[in-house]
């Protein structure tokens, strides 16, 4: 799945935060709700404009962000 089909960023929408395309639903809200254990079915009921593909796109987006993260070890 290419998350770019479902997630976009526009400076005029939610201050440029990544959102589900065609909505004002930020990706971080979806990820936060999933991290708290909210079932996908509840998310879909709470946000009737999204589909399960949007939720999986959020997870794929998170993976790409972490995968491309650079880690630097600091001397202690």
List keywords for this structure.
single chain; 76 residues; mainly alpha; two-stranded antiparallel ribbon; 3 helices; 42% helix
Question: How would you characterize the overall build of this protein?
Answer:
With 76 residues, the chain is mainly alpha-helical. Helices cover 42% and strands 5% of the residues. The chain has three helices and two strands. The chain has a two-stranded antiparallel sheet. Helix 1 (27-35) crosses helix 3 (52-67). The longest helix is centred in the C-terminal third of the chain and has 16 residues, at 52-67. The model has no long low-confidence stretch (mean pLDDT 95).
Strand and helix layout:
Elements: E1 7-8, E2 19-20, H1 27-35, H2 40-46, H3 52-67
Antiparallel strand pairs: 1-2
Shape: globular
Query: Which strand order spans the largest sheet, edge to edge or round the barrel?
Result: 1-2
Mean pLDDT: 95
* Count, helices: 3
Structural class: mainly alpha
Biggest beta-sheet profile? 2 strands, antiparallel
Low-confidence stretches: none
Q: Mind telling me the C-alpha Rg?
A: 14 Å
Write a concise synopsis of the structure shown.
This protein is 42% helix and 5% strand.
């Amino acid at each position: 799945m290419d998350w770019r089909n479902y997630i976009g960023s526009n400076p005029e929408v939610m201050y440029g935060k990544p959102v589900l395309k065609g909505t004002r639903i930020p990706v971080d809200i979806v990820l936060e709700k999933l991290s708290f254990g909210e079932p996908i079915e509840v998310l879909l009921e709470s946000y009737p404009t999204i589909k399960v593909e949007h939720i999986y796109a959020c997870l794929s987006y998170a993976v790409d962000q972490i995968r491309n993260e650079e880690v630097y070890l600091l001397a202690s």
